[in-house]
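Much of our argument rests on the idea that a fold can be written as discrete symbols. This step matters because it turns folding into a mapping between discrete strings. The record that follows shows the chain in one-letter code together with its fold in token form.
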Amino acid sequence: LLLSEVHDVVSAGHFGEDKTIKTLSHTYFWPWLASGIEDYIRSCDTCQRTKSSRQRKAGLLQPIPPSDRPWQAVTMDFIMALLRSVRGHDAIFIVVDKFSRAVHFVPPHRKVTAEGATTLFVDNVVRLHGVPDSIISDRDPHFTSKFWKQLFTLSGTRLTTVCHRLTTQGQMGRRSVSTRPWSRSFAAAPCTMQQHETRS
């Protein structure tokens, strides 16, 4: 009855959720005030029939085209703030090949710069597989700096920055989720791969 008097009568004007909550909260209070008002207004027949939504409609998904050969397209990300290893590393740089799903795990330091990230990428990916046609990353400062853009321009690589498009980073997201608890469990273990040197 109270919500009806505040929202439905002609003098109330069927105001929206925010204004109705503000009006009622000056005089009344109950634990579920905000959620109750939201539910009531969303079920108001008059509001649903006469008010248009100003919220932008969601567009279609824009997935990244599939690769047709290994290391043509890669995704990459950092997992930060891990336990410090015996060699002082506290982060993981992950690069995933979208075609074969092969993964490189590189242990840098948390304070790695954009230039340092570039060196990691060149030494651990480009040196072994060549420069990929496309590189997909989130909007991490390591990947959106002028240094990276200049490097990609000179090498003819397309830089794809992903903002609010989690579908394009599905492989990387799943890999990061599965890697994080594993890395935290074993980063401080006395027998870790960082204690052993790989000789070629």
